[in-house]
Amino acid sequence: MRVALYLQDAHDLRDGLDYVKYAEEKGFEAVWQAESRLVRDAIVPMAAYAAVTDKIKVGSGVINNWTRNIGLLASTFLTLDDLAPDRIICGLGAWWDPLARNVGIHRRKPLTAMRETVTVLRRLLNMERVTFHGEFVHVDGIELDVVHGRREPRNVPIMIGATGPKMMELTGEIADGAVLNYCVPPEYNDHALEQLERGARKAGRTLDDIDRPQLVVCSVDHDHDKAIDTTRELLTQYLAQQPHIAKASGVSQEVVAEIQSILGWPATHEQIQTAKHLVPEDLIHRITASGTPDEARAKVQEYIDHGATCPILYPVGGDVKLLVDTFAQV
């Protein structure tokens, strides 16, 4: 099966290079680098991964469409494609509050903003000269000014990290694929695929034309209880700080509110330890692939059975190489 690795910030950056090289050796299709909290930029690690590998694809999983000017966004992915031709994937997301608000970004009309970003980005990567005056994106006669290097259109798939139904429908209409979110039960995908298909029909496409890789929190350990406890700490933080994920996961608002009353921003290790008992084990089993290797494989298969085309495995603590070995394709 297709399988990918997801890296965020819970490791030394140089260790990440070793993880990516090991995943490539074991037949992983791609590595996706997160850019969510104010902790680790996605582009620098992506360039590093591309430089030390030969075959594995490298994606942004995902960067927001608010903080990079459209010209800079296009030139960034042109540069990455120069480093690793035909191996770069651009994953975009609409970001989330309160983080966006706290750095001065007012996320109004996220669907319009995303549509304009994808439209102009695709045209620029096709090496077109673009004039576009939208509500959020304004460019006058710009093009990627390649003097040294390839001038042909670049093969950089544009994926949207959609969570809500309206963004999912837009993704089906305008994107090459959807990066389905993590911390959701497998059956969440059923409705998501309906929205993707509705959007695809608007563009004269079918659901099969839309790639559907999915982030999956995956804690693998030969000790079942250790794997579960590691995931519990992650969910404690995510449920408090990323309300769109909490809503999609189906967690009761009372539990979320109680966790939020304990955690600050950013959350401390002590606060997470205090609040983690509020995350029930049945929730961990429902929305993550955590446990022994056999348990993790079985849960990942559920996401595939519900329409995910390529699980993007997010190792939370523990032995990353054990996770890679668990899902090795060679």
Can you give a write-up of this model?
The protein is built from 14 helices and 12 strands. It is α/β, with parallel strands linked by helices. The protein has 2 domains: 4-221 and 289-326, TIM Barrel; 223-288, no CATH class.
Which topology of the largest domain does CATH recognise? TIM Barrel
Question: What percentage of the residues does DSSP assign to strands (E)?
Answer: 15-25%
The domain count comes to: 2
Query: What is the end-to-end distance?
Result: 11 Å
Number of helices: 14
Number of strands: 12
CATH homologous superfamily identity of the largest domain: Luciferase-like domain
- Binned, the helix content reads 40-55%
Q: Could you tell me the radius of gyration in angstroms?
A: 19 Å
The rough form would be described as globular
Topology order in helix (H) and strand (E) letters: EHEHEEHEHHEEEHEHEHHHHHEHEH
CATH class of the largest domain: Alpha Beta
CATH architecture of the largest domain: Alpha-Beta Barrel
Class derived from helix and strand content: alpha/beta
Low-confidence stretches: none
What does the largest sheet look like? 10 strands, parallel
Q: Calculate the mean pLDDT score and round it.
A: 94
List keywords for this structure.
single chain; about 325 residues; alpha/beta; TIM Barrel; two-stranded antiparallel sheet; about 45% helix; globular
